[in-house]
Amino acid sequence: MMRRLRRSDFHYNIVGRSRQWFIVSGVIVLISLASLFARGINAGLEFRGGSAFRVQASSTRVTVGEVRSAVQRAGVNEPTVQKVGSRGFQVETQHLTPTEQDKVATAIAKVAEVKRNDVDVEDVGPKWGKQITNKAIRALIIFLVVVTLYMSVRLEPKMAGAAFVALIHDLVITAGIYSLTGFEVTPSTIIALLTVLGYSLYDTVVIFDRVKERSQNLSASANITYTEAANQSVNHVLMRSLNTSITGLLPVGSLLFVGSFLLGAQTLRELALALFIGLTTGTYSSIFLATPLVAVWKEREERWQKLRARISARGGGAPAAAPPARVVTAQPAPAPVPGATMEARDVITPPPSRVATAQSSGQQAPGSVGGASSRTRKRKKRKRKKR
Length: 387
Fold this sequence. Notes:
Strand order of the largest sheet: 3-4-2-5
CATH topology of the largest domain: Multidrug efflux transporter AcrB transmembrane fold
CATH architecture of the largest domain: Up-down Bundle
Distance between the termini: 94 Å
Radius of gyration: 42 Å
Helix content: 55-70%
CATH class of the largest domain: Mainly Alpha
């Protein structure tokens, strides 16, 4: 199978199984929406506002539980404590006053066995977080509108609509995965999402451009429908899409699993996680959602309905049977009549096949009746001279 994929000789009925892909996407989207309404999103400090404390402990013996207990003794009920690297810690709390911030920083420095000045304190107001949220939503809406208009002009309105549905599909699934796993959503996550949407759009445009080129060549006498033409187009660019996705997922996966989880780089995790999820969902939606959706919508147009009806009337596009060959049956030669003269017996009758060939071509076949009459007259003249 991999050899056929490398040669782009892989013919899988992707578009023909659109109902199957729609069911899979619908189930995943419903699960994501249910999680978003039930659990919500773990918004980062930049969006919800609050106070953040960062420190490098003096040794690796300090645990997350010890830091959390120290912050709770300082008067914070539900702090968020994360370990960064081998000795680093990041603590996030609700918005605190300067006095409360100093008290918490002192408690963290004590358990980490460092000085008070070694604890970095950052305070983000709720208004700033709200502004960031509004700007992110505004940027997303502008992006979707511009993309839809561009694709409507460059390709077709229905293709633009299918691409828009695929983008919303990717956004909902990515947000649902963040909600289910509880990963924090930060400005780096929003940047990664916008990057992923651009990549997903690129993959969709490549497939749609191939579909449009293939469908434009279909005439009224074509032997394939729009759905079959779209399926051929997807198979032609399938290996290209997979190669592009794998090439993009390899470095992103390295950032996520090696740089983030193994080395503890929190900033890399916020960026790489959204990229990894978005690249995967974007590849799936471009191949298994956007293209089948366009085929379903286009098959409702009168032109493609008539083409499908013609193909069905021709028995699925089979070529018409050739007319039966003309069969010439050879007639047996007549038996000689007793007492007949030599002249009559010497008449040579040409084979039926040669006579038919001569008649059809308008020429006199050799050994025809005309030639036999000439020889008969010559024999009669010789007999008269002998007499």
